[in-house]
Amino acid sequence: MRPTLRLLAAVKPPPRRYLTPGNPTGLTGLFTHPLPRPTLIYLYSQTLDKLLALPASSAYRAATEALTTHRLKIVESIRPPGYEAWSAGAKKLLDEHPEVFNTPKGGVSHDNEKHVKIVHGGRSFVRTVVGPQADERVQEWDGEEVPLEQEQGSRGNWKALAEGRPGSDEKTVEWVQEPALEAGQVEELEKQIGGGLIEEVIQVAEGELKLVDEMITAKVWEELEDKAGVGQWQYFARDQHTTGTQETPS
């Protein structure tokens, strides 16, 4: 019996093909992301779009564009199994039902505006609202008053009310999310980016996206009101504080 137990203990479980979303990553408060690839592509595309608001001469814009573009290319180069088939189906769905993903003001709200098409950097994204939808039948009245002429059924006023509050119909679509990366692909992505776990890379991308807004608000490309002292922004030359060891490179 003991030899059998020893053999069973020596058997290693087969490696998992996919990571389980929501599982602990080993870092406190950080859990396995379900779809890191489309999330990073979306964040990086948004960042590159926002950076266009800064002058091309801005050092921050140049450095951030270079890093973001580099990482975006890495992420896009690794595609999950079944990506081509999914991509073709997604494009077909967008072409066949454009009204579902683009609800104009005053238009009909298809599928309760669950799917919203967003374009960043020439790339199309579909943002899906996840979670229970609000039921107006169980919501408390917010105190909004309906004008008397609308209560009486004036045709013109009802038209204005409809434009302000789009209606809905029974047309819905089933949007399928992009296939998940395999565990090995996630590891390869982390290796090429070199920024830790993919969940950490996502956190950094989210922070950079917020930082761009702060930089635009602060107008960091403008001249300082109080000029910097001479040599303040120059890098220190190598080993310039010791003598007799080596010459300072020119």
| Gap between N and C termini | 75 Å
Uncertain segments are 150-156, 163-169
**Overall spatial form:** globular
Please estimate the helix content.
40-55%
Order of helices and strands: HHHHHEEHHHH
Structural class: mainly alpha
Instruction: List the strand order in the largest sheet.
Output: 1-2
Which range does the strand content fall in?
Answer: under 5%
Arithmetic mean pLDDT: 76
Count of DSSP strands: 2
Largest sheet: 2 strands, antiparallel
What's the gyration radius in Å? 27 Å
Number of helices, where a helix is a run of at least 4 consecutive DSSP H or I residues: 9
Please supply descriptive tags for the structure shown above.
globular; mainly alpha; 5% strand; single chain; 250 residues
Report on the architecture of this protein:
- Strands 1-2 form a two-stranded antiparallel sheet.
- The protein has helices at residues 2-10, 36-51, 59-77, 83-96, 98-101, 148-151, 155-164, 183-193, 198-218; strands at residues 115-120, 123-128.
- It is mainly alpha-helical and 250 residues long.
- Residues 150-156 and 163-169 have low confidence and may be disordered.
- α2 (36-51) packs antiparallel against α3 and α2 packs parallel to α9 (198-218).
- Helices cover 43% and strands 5% of the residues.
- The longest helix has 21 residues, at 198-218.
